[in-house]
Amino acid sequence: MAVEPHFSPELFSFLRDLARNNRREWFAVQKQRYEDVAKGPAQRFIADVGSHLARVSPSFLADPRPVGGSMFRIYRDTRFGKDKTPYKTHVGIQFRHKARKDVHAPGFYLHLDPGRCFIAAGIWHPDTETLAQIREAIDSDPRGWKRARDDRRFRARYELSGDSLARAPHGYDPGHPLVDDLKRKDFIATTPVTEREVTSAKFPERFVAICSQAAPFVRFLCRAIDVPY
What we know:
The chain is α+β, with helices and mostly antiparallel strands. It has a single domain (9-224), classed as BirA Bifunctional Protein, domain 2. 44% of the residues lie in helices and 13% in strands. It contains 9 helices and 5 strands. The protein has helices at 9-20, 24-56, 128-140, 142-149, 152-157, 179-182, 195-198, 203-213, 215-224, and strands spanning 91-96, 107-112, 117-123, 159-161, 187-193. Strands 1-2-3-5-4 form a 5-stranded antiparallel sheet. β2 and β3 form a beta hairpin. α1 packs across α2 (24-56), α2 crosses α8 (203-213) and α3 (128-140) packs across α4. The radius of gyration is 19 Å and the shape is globular. The two termini are 36 Å apart.
């Protein structure tokens, strides 16, 4: 019996339409469409990925709950920014670490956005304490960090990205051999995937296989902040 894909091209059609019609009135009429092509498929994907992801590491949560789970809400927080459009025009799914169940902990992430789908691994915008722990781990174990950062399978697939300081962080020599890594404010690695890949029936297995290529990088980050991998 053929296995049905979790995501369909209709997901990306909906997201393109939402980007053109980012208004509460339009979304109210289209909400069932959102449930059918985005929210429901994402919840099924999360549930089905869970057992496979456990083979990469048992420390990451695959929580299909509609609120408080792995899927980010479609609703934007418009309180502080100039952009007052009410809805995100992408689907975001994060498989968070069990020990630190927030967006700033190590994890794996799937971003579904027309023309810009990607998988990410690591920590985005870690808090001050977590960032200090990672920098200390790099400084005290430079060989371990370089092994993780330069792992052949990891670098064949992923690219390090995110924000960095303009200067060496306080307490570190600007001439430090790993100063460019110490200046990082994000410890995140990303790799693009196509809409065709996302809408394939084999995408859950492919997603997990791509996550497994980031294992050395994520393992180092977990060790740095003293949580199990």
